[in-house]
Amino acid sequence: MSGNRFFVPLDVFNQAETFFPPAISKQITSVLRLKSGQMVTILDNNGHCRSVELLDIDSKQVTGQPGEISPATGEPKVNLTLCVALSQREKFEWILQKGCELGVRHFIPVVTSRSLVQDTRGREEKMDRWNKILQEASEQCGRGLIPSINNPQKLDDFLKQNQGRRGYILHEKVKGSYFAASLQNSLISGEKDWLLLVGPEGGFSEDEVNLAEQAGLQPVSLGPRILRMETAVLAACAVFMAAAGELGSMDL
């Protein structure tokens, strides 16, 4: 499949001739400056893709001739849900982008007692922006599906609603229980759905860690050093995907 990829609505994906939506048409002509005869890939966000030969190039309406439908690639064999504390806008959006690149399937923003951001107002505007970031990241990194993201909620509400989930909570005060070592044993079970809970800049309170344990999450550490929040998220996602075989063969 070609390098330029676009998630399109299902009715556009299934057409005998592809009529690109206005925003994508503008991107093709004004940003990417693609020409008639070049190939792009369209995806339906349901696990399918098609190569499309561009025909008429116009900033208001680009058309193309689609090829056969085939399975979309780029999705991990495991479903990782990243439950992460809300933070400053730039930092949180960076986490969304990099988490998407590493293969996170679901994002759940939560408010904890030490979160820098406690206000969850303006959800609709935030959700639109977050979904756009995830779509663009998915197109650029070769994902076959766009990760989903939930509305922000309080951590204790989330834990009450998700009793018995298989997963982990990162906690810097845990001694002798390292994430990488724990994964070696856990992933042998063949479980596909996992939850990773990462706290804010100030870490979790002891009450929050206790609630997470009661919900079934295992407290683990990333090692003896104290990591910044965004570093911990990136490192944990990479360790998980490596252990699951999604970053190539690797002995942890």
From TrEMBL:
Alphabetically ordered keywords of this record: Cytoplasm, Methyltransferase, rRNA processing, S-adenosyl-L-methionine, Transferase
Keyword Translocase included in the entry's annotation: no
Subcellular location field: Cytoplasm
Domain of life: Bacteria
Enzyme Commission number, as recorded: 2.1.1.193
Any one cellular-component term (Gene Ontology): cytoplasm
UniProt cross-references to Pfam families, sorted A to Z: Methyltrans_RNA (PF04452)
Gene Ontology molecular function terms on file: rRNA (uridine-N3-)-methyltransferase activity
Single Gene Ontology BP annotation: rRNA base methylation
UniProt catalytic activity: uridine(1498) in 16S rRNA + S-adenosyl-L-methionine = N(3)-methyluridine(1498) in 16S rRNA + S-adenosyl-L-homocysteine + H(+)
Xref: CDD domains: RsmE-like
Residue ranges annotated for the Ribosomal RNA small subunit methyltransferase E methyltransferase domain, each copy included: 76-240
SUPFAM superfamilies reported in the protein's UniProt record: alpha/beta knot (SSF75217), PUA domain-like (SSF88697)
Keyword Amino-acid biosynthesis: no
Similarity remark: Belongs to the RNA methyltransferase RsmE family.
Its job: Specifically methylates the N3 position of the uracil ring of uridine 1498 (m3U1498) in 16S rRNA. Acts on the fully assembled 30S ribosomal subunit.
NCBIfam families per record: RsmE family RNA methyltransferase
Protein's name according to its UniProt entry: Ribosomal RNA small subunit methyltransferase E
